[in-house]
Write a structure and sequence with these properties.
Layout: E1 7-10, H1 14-25, E2 30-33, H2 52-58, H3 61-65, E3 70-72, E4 74-78, E5 88-89, E6 102-104, H4 107-120, E7 124-126, E8 130-137, E9 140-147, E10 153-157, E11 160-163, H5 170-174, E12 178-180, E13 186-194, E14 207-212, E15 216-222, E16 227-235, H6 236-239, H7 247-255, H8 259-265, E17 269-277, E18 282-284, E19 288-289, E20 292-294, E21 300-301, H9 309-330, H10 339-360, H11 366-372, H12 377-385, H13 393-399, H14 418-424
Parallel strand pairs: 1-2, 1-11, 2-7, 4-14, 11-20
Antiparallel strand pairs: 3-6, 4-5, 8-9, 9-10, 12-18, 13-16, 13-17, 14-15, 15-16, 18-21, 19-20
Helix pairs in contact: 1-4, 1-9, 2-9, 9-10
């Protein structure tokens, strides 16, 4: 196997596999280094409508239509008392045959499909291979050192390395670029049930967001094989009140705080482990530097209340693949070349982040906005559905009547070299 590549990708999850697929389609010699052996477990199982475009670009739509994944046509919100909103069906706004139907996925199977898709397009994938170091010449990243499955160390070199390592954010942490969101510091506890209640007909695959006190919420994501992913997200001090620390005890106590969740789980059997994470929203100060580009969660990880993570990972992977190909074709992988990539990705993340901030404000509800400004319902729907790169200024102005909207974080711009910075002065 060669030690020299056009591009090296750290991680074979949705961001890495999609970037690898696009680069391979462009004829690039691509190496994906994945720490785990696929299939492997991962949370984050719900797609949103505007995931369609990157999936179509990747050639994944036909594969998903042939899969066992549960079709998702709608989302609904439920009060703590169990009162459910009218489900919002995506086909009331979008094309029924494309954007308006998406999927609830089992990530072990979905990520395997996506990584195999990159392989089919020509990417070389090494699983059970742990990247241990970024190789540098001066300020430039020129490759990586990795530990192979058999424990041997090997160096791989390329003009550019894409960090697609997910929440681990391999290079972000090592470069000291990680920045926590000043407010979105929630904790999540989740598990799985088999045989619990489901909604009828096409609502069977609906995502349900069910509220608990203190602006916390449950996700309820039905899956195939009669399984459901269900978890609670709230402030850590709320979830651990009374000294309760066990994820299992936290979860079952919170189930009693929402009548709809309690009822729907009552006929099911809990399966597997209880999981907890407190690493919620963070961003990278830079999107990359000379020879390095961040993609997906390695760039930014946002509170998952609106299930934007998979869409942003796949979209950023496709964008990165095209941007890196253009940079290689120009013989210039300087960080300045990726300014448009960074700005587009950052704009989408910031728009979704603004809506998440509003959601957690106790004085805000979507109904307040749409009752007073019916014409803004379309903007809310578009943002929630993943059409995040559009002008939402009218929506933010309206929401400010009930909740403050955060300023954009000073993140995501490329880290230019000292020489380039001096030359630009």
């Amino acid at each position: 196997m060669s030690d020299q590549w056009d591009a090296i990708l750290i991680g074979g999850g949705p961001a890495g596999a999609s970037a690898a697929a696009v680069l391979s389609e462009h004829g690039r010699k691509v190496l994906v280094l994945e720490r785990e052996k696929f299939p492997r477990y991962h949370v984050g199982e719900s797609l949103i409508p505007f995931t369609y475009a990157p999936l179509e670009r990747l050639g994944m739509i036909s594969k998903l239509r042939q899969s066992a994944f549960l079709k998702k046509y709608s989302v609904q919100f439920v009060s703590p008392s169990g009162s459910a909103s009218q489900p919002f069906y995506f086909f009331t706004r979008y094309d029924r045959e494309t954007i308006a139907q998406t999927w609830q996925v089992l990530r072990s199977e979905f990520d395997q499909l996506n990584l195999d898709n990159a392989r089919e397009k020509g990417a070389t994938v090494l699983e059970e291979t742990r990247v241990t170091e970024l190789l540098k010449e001066g300020e430039a990243v020129v490759g990586v050192r990795a530990e192979l499955r058999d424990g041997t160390q090997r160096e791989f070199r390329a003009p550019i390395t894409l960090d697609c390592s997910g929440k681990e954010a391999f290079s972000t942490v090592r470069q000291g670029w990680r920045t926590k969101d000043p407010y979105l510091n929630k904790v999540a506890v989740w598990t799985y049930y088999k045989g619990s209640k489901r909604e009828p007909d096409i609502a069977e695959g609906a995502t349900t967001v069910a509220f608990v006190p203190e602006k916390g919420w449950f996700w309820h994501i039905p899956q195939h094989d009669d399984m459901v992913s269900v978890g609670v997200v709230a402030e850590g001090k709320y979830l651990t009140r009374g000294g309760v620390k066990s994820p299992k005890d936290i979860f079952h106590r919170e189930v009693t705080q929402n009548a709809w969740i309690q009822d729907h789980l009552s006929t099911g059997q809990q399966v597997g482990d209880y999981y907890l994470t407190n690493e919620y929203s963070f961003h990278s100060k830079h999107c990359g530097s000379q020879g390095l580009l961040l993609v997906g969660d390695a760039f930014a990880f946002l509170d998952p209340v609106f299930s934007s993570g998979l869409m942003l990972a796949l979209k950023s992977g496709v964008m990165a693949g095209d941007a890196v190909h253009a940079a290689l074709a120009a013989g210039d992988v300087s960080p300045e070349r990726f300014t448009d990539y960074a700005n587009t990705l950052r704009e989408g993340i910031e728009n979704m982040r603004k809506l998440v901030y509003a959601f957690y404000n106790p004085n805000f509800s979507f109904r307040q906005v749409t009752d007073k400004y019916p014409h803004l319902g379309a903007d809310i729907t578009d943002c929630l559905s993943g059409d995040v790169n559009k002008d939402f200024s009218r929506l933010w102005d309206a929401i400010r009547e009930w909740a403050p909207i955060p300023d954009d974080l000073p993140i995501g711009q490329p880290l230019v070299s000292r020489e380039a910075a001096v030359a630009a002065q």
